[in-house]
Design a protein that fits this description.
By secondary structure, the protein is α/β, with parallel strands linked by helices. The chain is built from eight helices and four strands. Helix 7 links the parallel strand 3 and strand 4. The longest helix is centred in the N-terminal third of the chain and has 19 residues.
């Protein structure tokens, strides 16, 4: 599952992700409020889904509708493949990372060499955020992020609970992810849904 990548491509992805990572560190909440007035209310204490845009429809089918909607309503952050180009939207991604306190990364072959996924993971690891890894396919994890590769190797040896395997059974993966999120929601409830303020 974990293979080394050619050095030139690895350096290019890492350098590009580093530049994005520096961008993600900066944060002006009032700038976000001006462009997305409901974002803070919906995302504070919610879930950020880190993923490749090419997996959007698969995530909706496998993860969002079966697991996330019951727990977060429409308040979790899952970007659409076509929505990430504008500067305003990049500002929203940055804000979502700061406001959310629950994080999932969806891992497929589409995230290999993906600079935004790498930058978001850099941010999460740098801030020591709790992270659930949803594994959809076998991957070369070193092409995604070195700490992800390290975590998957430990999981293979120890069956780490925070890694959810969808490769053999979608139903088992959904049940495992639901259990992990329910534990997080017990510790850090999402105030907007259900029963939270409108």
């Amino acid at each position: 599952m974990c293979m080394n990548e050619p050095g030139d491509q690895a350096d290019k992805t890492a350098n590009s992700a580093l530049a994005l990572g520096d961008y993600l560190l900066g944060f002006d909440e009032y700038e976000v409020d001006a462009s997305y007035p409901n974002a803070r209310r919906l995302l504070t204490g919610s879930l950020f889904v880190c993923h490749a845009g090419a997996d959007f429809h698969k995530i909706i089918e496998l993860i969002a509708f079966p697991v996330l909607t019951d727990r977060f309503g429409d308040g979790y952050f899952l970007h659409n493949r076509k929505s990430g180009g504008s500067q305003d939207y990049k500002v929203l991604v940055r804000a979502a990372l700061h406001w959310c306190d629950k994080f999932v990364v969806v891992v497929s072959q589409n995230v290999e060499g993906h600079e935004w996924v790498r930058a978001e993971l850099d941010w999460l690891y740098r801030h020591a955020k709790p992270l659930i890894v949803c594994l959809l396919e076998d991957i070369r994890a070193s092409k995604v992020h070195p700490k992800l590769a390290e975590g998957l190797q430990l999981w293979q040896n120890e069956q780490r609970e925070s890694i959810v395997d969808f490769r053999q059974s979608a139903l088992d993966g959904q049940a495992h992810l639901a259990s992990l999120l329910d534990k997080q929601l017990t510790l850090r409830p999402y105030p907007r849904f259900p029963g939270g303020p409108p």
